[in-house]
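Figure 6 in text form: structure in, sequence out.
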């Protein structure tokens, strides 16, 4: 079960201006800007089968994913 914040799906101004400024101040760690599609592809490439995905509310960049390791 994963709740992942997909930075690649966020507002461009926030992603390109605010997050780098917060990183420069040391307030947030380095990030990889994945979209929800890229995240799902990475999970499948790592050998998992995605069973359910959901996005709740208006936060289209916060995704819940249930995945199971394929045998």
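Output sequence:
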């Amino acid at each position: 079960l994963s709740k992942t914040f997909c930075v690649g799906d966020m507002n461009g101004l926030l992603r390109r201006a605010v997050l780098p400024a917060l990183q420069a101040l040391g307030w947030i760690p380095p990030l990889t800007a994945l979209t929800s599609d890229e995240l799902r592809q990475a999970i499948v490439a790592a050998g998992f089968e995605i069973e359910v995905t959901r996005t709740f509310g208006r936060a289209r960049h916060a995704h819940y994913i249930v995945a199971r390791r394929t045998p």
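Caption detail: The two ends are 17 Å apart (CA to CA).
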